[in-house]
Specification:
Low-confidence stretches of chain C: none
Strand content of chain C: 25-35%
Strand order of the largest sheet of chain C: 1-2-3-5-4
Number of helices of chain A: 5
Number of domains of chain C: 1
Shape of chain A: globular
CATH superfamily of chain A: HprK N-terminal domain-like
Order of helices and strands of chain A: HEEHEHEHEH
Number of domains of chain A: 1
CATH architecture of chain C: 2-Layer Sandwich
Largest sheet of chain A: 5 strands, mixed
Distance between the termini of chain C: 24 Å
CATH class of chain A: Alpha Beta
Mean pLDDT of chain A: 96
Mean pLDDT of chain C: 92
Number of strands of chain A: 5
Chains: A alpha/beta (about 110), B alpha/beta (about 110), C alpha+beta (about 140)
Oligomer: heterotrimer
Distance between the termini of chain A: 13 Å
CATH architecture of chain A: 3-Layer(aba) Sandwich
Structural class of chain A: alpha/beta
Radius of gyration of chain A: 12 Å
Helix content of chain A: 40-55%
Largest interface: A-B, 24 and 25 residues
Structural class of chain C: alpha+beta
Chain lengths: ~110, ~110, ~140
C-alpha cells in the first residue's frame, strides 16, 4: 500500500509533502516521544503522533519513515510543514484519536 | 472487554489488580503524553502508553482511569506498582509496540473514545 | 455542617517523582467529604496540571487548599522564572518546556488551557524572575 492509498482509505487530510505520496508503507509506529521514535521506528513506517513541532520531520527523515499522521485534529507548525515539503515525506492529519486511527491502519495493513 | 481478556490478547503480564480480572473497559485511549490524557474526560477508559513513570500513575489517578497497559516492553518500578495499588489501578505490561497493542485491541472490539 | 478545611503542601521544583502528591491528598479529602464525582475530577485535574507546572518550571512552591460548603479554592504559588506573556501561555500548544520535560510526558503546551477548562474560575498573576500565582476556584453546586 502506498501513502496515497492510505490517505484515500482512511480519509486523511494532506498538509504537505505531497510529492512523497507514492512512498510504500511497511507498517506503523505510534509514539509521542521523539527519542523513542529515534530509537525504535523502522524505515517505511507511518508514524502516528500528536506532536506537531519541527523535530518531528527531522526524525521522520532520519528514520526514512513513509509518512506522519497527526491525530486529534492537530495542525502542524508552519516550519514542520515546510520541512515535510523539503523531505518529500507526507504530513497527514485526522480528527480521530491515536487509538482509533491506529486500529484502522492496523486493519488495513494486516487483515 | 475484561482485564483478563486484554491480558490474553496481548500475551501480557499483570502487575497488580489480581482481584480485578473481571473489571470491564469499553473504550481505550492511547498516548505517551500525560498532558493529552488529562484532557480526555471519559471515566473508566483503558490507557495504553509507552510512558512508564510515576506521572503515568498519578495521571491515571487524577483522571479516574482504572487500568493501564504499558506497551513497548516498558517496566513499572516497585514504587509505581505500590502507588497503583493504593489507587486500585490495574497495571499490565506488554511486549508489543504501541501500534500493535492498539491494533490488536481495536480488532478485538475495544472502542475509541469520542 | 459549616466546616472549613484548609491544607497546605510544599512542592519542590524538579522533583518529578513526587509531582502529584499534593493533588492526590486533595483528591482524598474531596472524596472523604463526599464532593460530587465530576467536580472532584475537574478539581484534581486542574490542581495536578498546576502542580506539574511548578515541578517543571519553578524552583519551589506551595499549594494551598481551602474548602467550605460553597467553594473549593486552590492557590498554587511558586518562586520561579514567572511567565513573560500570560496571554501567550494560555494558548494551546505554546510551551517553554525543555525536551526533558517533553520526554516525561508533559510540556505540550496544554497545561494552563486545560486548567482553565476544568476550573470554574481561574486567575493568574506572574512576575518574571520572581514567580507565578495561580488561583482556581470550583463551585460545589452541581452543574446541569
Amino acid at each position: 500500500m502506498t501513502a496515497a492509498e492510505m490517505v484515500n482509505k482512511l480519509d486523511l487530510q494532506v498538509f504537505s509533502g505531497e510529492k512523497g505520496l507514492d512512498r510504500e508503507i511497511s507498517g506503523g509506529y505510534m509514539s509521542d516521544l521523539l527519542s523513542d521514535v529515534m530509537g525504535n521506528a523502522d524505515e517505511g513506517q507511518v508514524w502516528i503522533t500528536l506532536q506537531t513541532h519541527k523535530n518531528v520531520m527531522a526524525i521522520a527523515s532520519l528514520k526514512e519513515l513513509a509518512a506522519v499522521i497527526l491525530v486529534n485534529g492537530h495542525k502542524p507548525d508552519d516550519d514542520t510543514a515546510a520541512q515535510s515539503n523539503e523531505e518529500d515525506i507526507p504530513l497527514l492529519g485526522t480528527s480521530m484519536s491515536a487509538f482509533d486511527i491506529t486500529g484502522k491502519l492496523y486493519e488495513l495493513i494486516y487483515k | 472487554m475484561k482485564v483478563k481478556e486484554i491480558i490474553r490478547i496481548l500475551d501480557a503480564r499483570l502487575l497488580c489488580g489480581e482481584d480485578q480480572l473481571d473489571y470491564t473497559v469499553e473504550m481505550a485511549f492511547a498516548s505517551d503524553l500525560m498532558s493529552d490524557v488529562l484532557t480526555q474526560n471519559n471515566d473508566h477508559v483503558l490507557l495504553i502508553t509507552g510512558l512508564a513513570n510515576m506521572q503515568t500513575i498519578r495521571t491515571a489517578e487524577m483522571s479516574d482511569i482504572n487500568c493501564i497497559v504499558f506497551a513497548r516492553n516498558k517496566k513499572a518500578t516497585p514504587e509505581m506498582v505500590e502507588l497503583a495499588e493504593e489507587s486500585d489501578i490495574v497495571l499490565i505490561e506488554c511486549r508489543y509496540s504501541l501500534f500493535k497493542t492498539c491494533g490488536l485491541l481495536y480488532q478485538a472490539g475495544v472502542k475509541p473514545i469520542f | 455542617m459549616s466546616e472549613t478545611i484548609t491544607e497546605e503542601y510544599s512542592v519542590t521544583g524538579g522533583d518529578f517523582s513526587r509531582a502529584g502528591y499534593a493533588s492526590s491528598q486533595i483528591k482524598k479529602i474531596l472524596k472523604r467529604m463526599d464532593v460530587d464525582k465530576a467536580i472532584i475530577k475537574r478539581t484534581v485535574v486542574a490542581a495536578y496540571e498546576g502542580e506539574v507546572n511548578i515541578v517543571a518550571h519553578a524552583w519551589s512552591g506551595k499549594i494551598e487548599f481551602q474548602m467550605d460548603e460553597e467553594q473549593i479554592r486552590i492557590i498554587l504559588d511558586d518562586e520561579g522564572p514567572g511567565i513573560e506573556d500570560i496571554e501567550k501561555a494560555m494558548q494551546e500548544g505554546y510551551s517553554t518546556a525543555t525536551s526533558a520535560i517533553r520526554e516525561m510526558g508533559f510540556g505540550a503546551g496544554m497545561g494552563l488551557p486545560n486548567m482553565k477548562k476544568n476550573a470554574d474560575h481561574m486567575h493568574i498573576e506572574s512576575e518574571p524572575g520572581k514567580g507565578t500565582k495561580v488561583e482556581i476556584r470550583m463551585e460545589r453546586m452541581v452543574r446541569e
